[in-house]
Amino acid sequence: MDPIFQFSDEELNDGGGDPREELHTNPSEEDQEEVENLAPAIPPQEEVENLAPTIPPRQIPELLIARIVALVPRCQYPKLSLISRAFFRVISSPELYIRRLQLGLTEPVLYALIGFPYSYERFSRWHILNLNISESLREVPTFPPMYPGSSVVTFGYNMYVIGGLNGFNHPVSTVFVLDCRFHAWDNLPSMHRARYRAAAGVIDRKIYVIGGCERPHAYDGWIEVFDVDNGVWSTVPDPSHYNSNMPGGGFVTSVVMQDRIYILDALCALVYEPRQGTWQSLGLESSTLMDFWRQPCCVIEDLLYSFDVLCVLKHPIVVFDPVEMVWNPVKGLDDGLPYLRYSVCQMANVGGKLMVLATSNTIYNDTWCIEITLERREGGEIWGTVDSKEIVLISGTSPSIDLSCSVTV
């Protein structure tokens, strides 16, 4: 995929105009001030005469720009790209992100799929979340809308969107990749079979896709694997008898823990070990895992987090240990969480922190983002601390938050 720089107009206009216009030679006062803030403060007037002349932004060497911009948070790039053509070229270059990786300056960024049930839009739209800046939740119009029932996995700075339903009872085999550095996307080779609500996970630089289709035979390509390095799909022989209990062969959800793919079916929970090609039915443990495992879930340090909607364990968020095979409450959050609709929300692992994106359980339908730091204390208890909570979206109607996931850029 060509690394084309494709920040949205909303992102660009957040700091001025379009870099394709004359702003790159005549930056606005706001953009000029932002560049000047990167330099040391100007000394008193009597000392100015002894200073060397200020270099205009368009004359700064690109190598120096690259070294400076690599240290700046990713959310500021749309504004910085307006300063000059040189800034634009640096920010649209893959080499910038290679340098950020080498310096250990990559950042986790949260993306969410949000729809508005009473709007004219047929599909939900992708949004990017950057806390602590104005308009922290913004649409990414350069990303294509996602088919309902698609499976999404992340690897590096990419999101892979797999299958889904295009029209009534019409699953597709299409796969596309979203490049979160430049907000560009491209098609990948299609799968051998069309799939809807398939289980998926990334292990050893390979994307495993399971089910999401009917399985009349054992060796029919029910499992496929995509090699990220060579870009090729292949089917995985699977003589097991496991299948989905849901219509169409789909699953409720899936996660990766301990290099295994845990799959939530309508009636049971399954575990697939791709390195050995083996399956495990959890038996009695399956009912335990299903007690609180719901579609809004995420994995942090090989522990599964989900919502206890009825607060059976007297806390709204619970955690599952796949070694002990037991659910425990996440303590310490009782007074720190807003009154939210936990049945229609999402959670994600963002740099080791738990991020909750949910709509308030009030008439205002405000959408909140809550950032939670997790801590394992003596005795194995998990405690959470709310680092921040802010309203990121105000809407007259209750939005549907269909998915949230984190990408490192």
UniProtKB/TrEMBL annotation:
Positions of the FKB95-like N-terminal Kelch domain: 134-393
Region of interest (Disordered), ranges: 1-37
SUPFAM superfamilies, sorted: Kelch motif
Domain of life: Eukaryota
InterPro entries linked to this entry: F-box/kelch-repeat_ARATH, Kelch-typ_b-propeller, Kelch_1, Kelch_FKB95
PANTHER family membership: F-BOX DOMAIN-CONTAINING PROTEIN, F-BOX/KELCH-REPEAT PROTEIN SKIP4
Identification of the protein by name: F-box/kelch-repeat protein At2g29780
Species per Swiss-Prot/TrEMBL record: Camelina sativa
